[in-house]
Every structure is written in C-alpha cells, then in structure tokens.
Design goal:
This is Transcriptional regulator. With 311 residues, the chain is an alpha/beta fold. It has 10 helices and 12 strands.
C-alpha cells in the first residue's frame, strides 16, 4: 500500500523548508524540535527520498525536496482556502486574501477598490504584494497569492495561468520639472541624456526593449530599477529620463515634480490582466474583490480616462 502522508508531516516539511532550519520552524509552529525532526524523518522514510540536505547552520532542499515543496505548499493553501470558503458560505466573512499588484496599479486602480472592499468586509485581512508578474510566479503556483493584476509578456506561463484583460494604459517619456530635455519632441533628441527604467523582465518594459531593438539608436539605460517607486524618485530628483505611465503627469502625489515630454514617436500601450492559476477556486470574498477590480476597471473608460479599452 502506498505511503499515506499526514497533514502534520506536510506542515512540518513546508515550514522547515521556508525557515531553512528545524529551530526556525519550531518557533513558528510552536512545536518541539524533536517532534519536527520525527515528522520529517517519517516523511522521508515513507517516500523513500531525501528531502533535505543537512548543513551546519540549517537545511536546504534537495531536488526531490524542491519538487515536493511545490505540491505540499499548494496543498496547505488549498486547505486554508477551503476552510475559509466554508466559513464565508456560512456568513462568517473573515479570512485572508493575498493579491499581487503591478506598481502603477497600486498607485491608481487599487486604493479605491481596497477601501470599498474593507468597508464591506472589515474582518477580512488583505495582503498586497507589489511588483512585476515574474516576481510573483512562485507564490501564485503555491497558492500563496490568490491573484495578481499585472502586465504580461507571452512566455512559459501560458499553460498554467489564466489571463483576463482588464484595461490598458498609455505611457510617456518623463523628466524632472526644469530639465533641459523638456523642449524635446523626439526620442532621437533625448539620446544624449541618461535613462533609467524598471527591470524589463517579462512585462511592459520588455515590450519597450524590443521596440528600441528595432531602432538605429536606443536610449542609454544606465540604471535599471528593481522597483517602480525608485525609478520615479530617480527621475524626479535627477537628470535621468524614463518611460512611465502617462497618468503620473496628472497625479496629485507626483505631477508637481515630473514633466511629460511630448515626443512624436508612439509608445506601446500596456495591457493589464487579472492573472490567476487556471485551477484556482476563489473563495466568495476573493471573488467579491475580483469583481470590484473589474468594475473599477470599467470606470476607467470614461472620456477623460487615459485607458483606451477593455476586453
């Protein structure tokens, strides 16, 4: 008969993997180190596979351990989701939702949606992770993120993630107020300046990279920022130029420090998608939050909006 894995063994394994040590997992789970060690040993013996490499200062996953971790962490998240769904269907609207946001979504679409959601569901905790899709793949796969709203660049994730297009944004070239480049009208006129961009990994900035690859000359991007906010700060407080969402030109928080340069060249628009695992079963409150994002996205279609269309 096949080895029957027990839930306490899965919890022990996942936490030891996350903490990198028996001691760290012991603190988090509030279990003794001998009890955790026993659970891991039983799991490895039952599966006839070594899951951890023991080091002098902790443990690391073996190749088998890495594979098992992907499944085990998803099992725990699915169980948590199932428990919360039952409670929510019984009218007890508590629990937790973890979502990922592209940086410009965090600055524009997200605040009114989260404020409205918290009014409707004050007992639900919301965790927000900001960044590009590529930085969220692991948590999406493991069920630690319920969904993300982000830009997407075609690639290896098509088969495992579901994509629903919500809206588009226009982007523009920006500099600080008073920059000598403000009078320029072409990207060619800006090539002598230094540029900064957010990282191009698998997002809108990958599209820009391809656009510039087809030009005879391209901006000298000497600084790549891992966060959107650091890119904005660098442009606002130095002579660097960048390509950022056009809406920043009217933002109450930053427009007094940034100037939009009306270059003749058409820049690609950025499409934003609701992205989740294809097999994801959202809880009622997570589905409510998704619908709020859908409705807020549709409001961006008003005539003065910078968003041009939805699907």
């Amino acid at each position: 008969m096949a080895f029957q894995i027990k839930i306490h063994q899965i919890r022990a394994f996942v936490e030891v993997a996350r903490q990198g040590s028996i001691r760290g997992a012991s603190r988090v789970l509030q279990l003794s180190q001998p009890a955790l060690t026993k659970s891991i040993k039983e799991l490895e013996e039952g599966m006839a596979a070594q899951l951890f490499m023991r080091r002098s200062k902790g443990v690391t996953l073996t190749e088998c351990g890495e594979s098992f971790f992907q499944h085990a962490s998803l099992v725990l998240e699915e169980l948590r989701t199932a428990q919360e769904e039952i409670q929510q269907r019984l009218g007890r609207h508590a629990g937790q939702i973890s979502i990922g946001m592209g940086a410009s979504v965090s600055h524009s679409l997200m605040p009114p949606v989260i404020a409205r959601f918290r009014q409707q569901h004050p007992l639900v905790k919301v965790r927000i992770m900001e960044g590009q899709l590529v930085s969220m793949i692991g948590e999406l796969r493991q069920g630690e993120l319920d969904f993300t709203i982000n830009t997407y660049y075609r690639g290896a994730y098509d088969h495992e993630l579901a994509f629903e297009k919500l809206f588009e944004k226009r982007f523009a070239v920006f500099c600080r107020i008073g920059h000598p480049a403000q009078a320029a009208r072409s990207i060619d006129d800006l090539l002598r300046y230094s540029w900064t961009m957010p990282t191009p990994r698998g997002s809108y900035y990958k599209q820009l990279e391809e656009m510039f690859a087809h030009r005879a000359q391209a901006p000298d991007i000497g600084v790549v920022c891992e966060t959107f906010s650091s890119c904005i700060s660098l442009v606002a407080q130095s002579d660097f130029l960048s390509i950022l969402p056009e809406e920043l030109g009217t933002s109450a928080l930053i427009s007094h420090r940034l100037a939009m340069i009306p270059v003749a060249e058409a820049l690609p628009t950025a499409a934003y998608y609701l992205i989740q695992r294809r097999d994801a079963q959202q809880t009622p409150v997570a589905a409510t939050l998704i619908n709020l994002f859908r409705r807020q996205s549709r409001t961006l279609l008003r005539p003065d909006s910078l968003i041009v269309k939805t699907r």
